[in-house]
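B., you asked whether I could sanity-check this one before it goes into the benchmark set. Here's the sequence:
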Amino acid sequence: MAKNTQTDIDLLAGVQGAEPARALARILESMTALNSVSGQERTLADAVQRALSSRADLLVRRLGDTVVASTQLGRPHRIVLAGHLDTVPVDGNLPPRWLEPGDPAIRADLAAAHPGSRVLHGRGAADMKASDAVFLHLALTLQEPVYDLTFVFYDHEEVQADLNGLGRVVAAHPDWVRGDFAIIGEPTDCAIEAGCNGTMRFDLITHGTTAHSARAWMGSNAIHAAAPILNRLEQYRPATVKVDGLDYREGLNATMIEGGLGTNVIPDRCRVHVNYRFAPDKSLSQAKELMMGQGTGAELGNGEHVALGGVFQGFSVRMCDESPAARPGLDSPWARSLADLVARTTGQQPRAKLGWTDVARFSALGLPAVNLGAGDPLLAHKADEQVPLDDLVRLEAILVEWLNGPDGR
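And here's what the prediction gave me:
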């Protein structure tokens, strides 16, 4: 894992007085140069806090490595713009580097879609420091928007839900993130991706009896006993569910398998880790019932339980992580006006968000929210993660026009 390349960064350097594209490039490069893998966000959070605190009319608050900055303009409505600071682990893609137009290292799809644009290659460039850079630049430069604004830069989004910095703020200080509408800056190619699938992760565990592999009949092979689990997963066909006019594709997959004590030992335990991505027509409890039946009792932290029904009836289940889905939320006036502007600007209509995002967290608060960010979502977590600078410029232009709108709803 790469170490932080800097112990301190100045996110204000080159911002004041610079034209937007140059300022955005400087902020993005500075943020991306800093390794902020989940659990290592502190230095970046410190830099973000310093930058936000330079503006006297922002109320800046912090919980752990989550930084929240709010305007106090007395507007009748408030918009929340939120982005996570953490990334998945580095994969040979730090430090970042700018690729100039025509560089063969630029992905062919990006070169075709963004001819003439500089491209930043590096961990977190698309997911989601590009949007973070736009939000930070707006916080530092936007004057007299028609809404009050709250900017949230939070930690631990890429790991289990109980560590999520936004979730900790919601639990401890819900007043910090109250508003009328929220935008999560997950990469969407500057389109609106509405709602999100829910997700749950659980272990399916089989048990056996150890024995010497030369006398296998003296034991019971737990890995062999996991074969029906894999068969059920192989036979599963993901559903596509239409919710409020948008298509959400579900998924059910084994993502890890573990078992065995030695090369000549019959294993007495096997663990198959499963991830279920479910559409927002289902609650968390309904999704769980589909997987393990009603009344199974498997909850986070309470050990193994035998599934009483569902896809994995009869198998031992241990819950590992769970997060609810969120419906599209496009019926709010803010969502409609933003979607209209995005369509006029980019030609893109709203589509379903197929992954899980913190839109669900805002939805649970009764706060309508959408995903809208710079960068290609298909490049998130890839070793060749790249983002074109003109995507940041386009996202900022959309948000400036919308936040300076005529009536503030």
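One thing to flag: The chain is about 30% helix and 25% strand. Otherwise nothing jumped out at me.
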